[in-house]
Design brief:
The relative contact order is 0.25. With about 90 residues, the protein is α+β, with helices and mostly antiparallel strands. It has one domain: Alpha-Beta Plaits (2-Layer Sandwich), CATH 3.30.70.20. The protein is elongated. Helices cover about 20% and strands about 15% of the residues. Strand 2 and strand 3 form a beta hairpin. The chain has three helices and four strands.
Length: about 90
């Protein structure tokens, strides 16, 4: 058991492999936010890897589309489905 723990300490993390903070040029689209559906659970703020989502003074969220890497994690974790990925032409 101890040897297994030591091996895993020095193993490369699975979640960080292939992750980039730069916007991939082959992805298009943006995240749409419906303020009326938002329950203010802030799961999207917690899970955004690029820190592109923040809470405004009126307690609703704000998406910085320049920072957004279009990973769509926020869309998946939103309990009220207030976020939606849309395609832009």
């Amino acid at each position: 058991m101890f040897i297994k723990v030591l091996k895993n300490i020095f193993k490369k993390r699975e979640t960080l492999q292939g992750f980039t903070r730069e916007f991939p040029k082959n992805r298009i689209g943006r995240i749409s936010y419906n303020q009326k559906k938002c329950t203010k659970a802030y799961e999207c703020v917690k899970y955004c890897p690029a820190n592109a989502i923040s809470v405004r003074a009126d307690k609703f969220i704000q998406i910085d589309h320049e920072k957004c890497i279009r990973c769509k994690i926020c869309v998946r974790v939103c309990p009220s489905k207030a976020l939606k990925a849309i395609k832009e032409s």
